[in-house]
Amino acid sequence: MNETIPVTSDQGPKDRLRERIRGRTARIGVCGLGYVGLPLCVATAQQGFKVSGFDINEARVDELNGGRSGIGAVSDEELQTLIAQDTFSASQDPSGLADCDVILICVPTPLTRHREPDLQYVRATAETIAANQRPGQLVVLESTTYPGTTNEVIRPILEQHGLKSGSDFFLGFSPEREDPGNRHFDTASIPKVVSGDGDTARELAVLFYDAVVDQVVPVSTNQTAEAVKLTENIFRAVNIALVNELKVVYDAMGIDVWEVIDAAKTKPFGYMPFYPGPGLGGHCIPIDPFYLTWKSREYDLSTRFIELAGEINVAMPRFVVDRLAQALNDRSGRALAKARILLIGMAYKKNVEDIRESPSFKLMQLIEQRGATVDYHDPFVDEIPGTREHPEYQGRKSVSLTKDSVAGFDAVLISTDHDTVDYALIANAASLIVDTRNVFARLGLDMSNVVKA
């Protein structure tokens, strides 16, 4: 239970909460213990707060309480230290939310089959918080979503039992900015955009995050903070779509788009390099732009630029598979049907184990639909876990990478360019390599059997 702090009789909920945050005696609850929630738990606990993590997945809770992180951003040693210090624990029991002074929501915000926002996890978490709520709590949504979600969706749920935002409890939004695999930035070092439902909520949210991260960036409203995160990811999605389209155009002209980008980025102003690939992956960039597209319809506005970018990026796996089929035919006279293909990388980006929305799934699906067989090698993904989108691949295991095994495939397709893959071995053993990441040129390896896609 919460430690007792002497308070004066005229202290209200905001004053008591402010004192607990400043004294680091506030207990912090984090709902959702994945790629966003767990690093946030660790960063918060390392600053002296006691943190309770909540997750509906019993296996995940047991894994964490056993000192096993399961994600690259948090080491087992870090987690075990916090558990030994009694500053972190995980639980399935939502009644513990009543003991928390600050509650952070870090649950998925996927899309439906019709590419519309799916807020089922956000709503369910808000309902759970409301059922265990007490006066004087700060609740902050970190999940990426459309402008208006915090105030229009979460606030009514939290107010359904009589408590009022801004007086009985305080509501904020602070978008997660995790970048799995990025060794230069972590939760504490990435500037944190923060706002609240009113001045008091914003003040309390800023006070809390200022104790956890290096830099806090306050903005005027929750809607503004929600729009900030969408803008960041739409910027990336649109620019990646641009270079993906240029890749297709320049390929038809016999021009190497990677050489073009490398030369263009020498300009010291007015240009920022983005790189093409086999498609978009991860939980943010392929999904978040469509949250704004959906919301804009409420205002009778179209988002043609965003939707066009989405169409281009979604089309990339098919372009890659067509390039693979063409290369097989041109190099060996072999059809893709009944060919054996080795796919390098199941993760959506290099040097991480994260497979969410990975284009590798679509590549496998398209290749197998054309009659070929596909194996994969990924040093970070030993076995494909169950996923909502591709349950048919659950249990498929990564194959070993040896000279003989590589030589047994008709082609090797590079989808994810993990640094620890032995590309020299692949270059020497493979009869054909289709490279979507330009990794062989970057490493200066033999290019005679490499086709870029």
Describe the structure.
By secondary structure, the chain is of the alpha/beta class. It contains 15 helices and 13 strands. 39% of the residues lie in helices and 12% in strands. Helix 12 links the parallel strand 9 and strand 10. The longest helix is centred in the middle third of the chain and has 32 residues. The radius of gyration is 24 Å and the shape is elongated. The N terminus is likely disordered.
Query: What Rg is obtained from the alpha carbons, in whole angstroms?
Result: 24 Å
Highest-level CATH class of the largest domain: Alpha Beta
Number of strands: 13
Name the CATH superfamily classification of the largest domain.
NAD(P)-binding Rossmann-like Domain
Shape: elongated
Q: Biggest sheet: strands side by side, in what order?
A: 3-2-1-4-5-6-7-8
Broad structural category: alpha/beta
The CATH topology of the largest domain is given as Rossmann fold
CATH architecture call of the largest domain: 3-Layer(aba) Sandwich
Strand content: 5-15%
Give the number of helices: 15
Report the helical percentage.
Answer: 25-40%
Low-confidence stretches: 1-10
Q: N-to-C SSE series?
A: HEHEHHEEHEHEEHEHHHHEHEHEHEHE
User: What is the distance, rounded to the nearest whole angstrom, between the alpha carbons of the first and last residues?
Assistant: 58 Å
The largest β sheet comes out as: 8 strands, mixed
Q: How many distinct folded domains?
A: 2
Question: What is the residue-mean pLDDT, rounded to a whole number?
Answer: 94
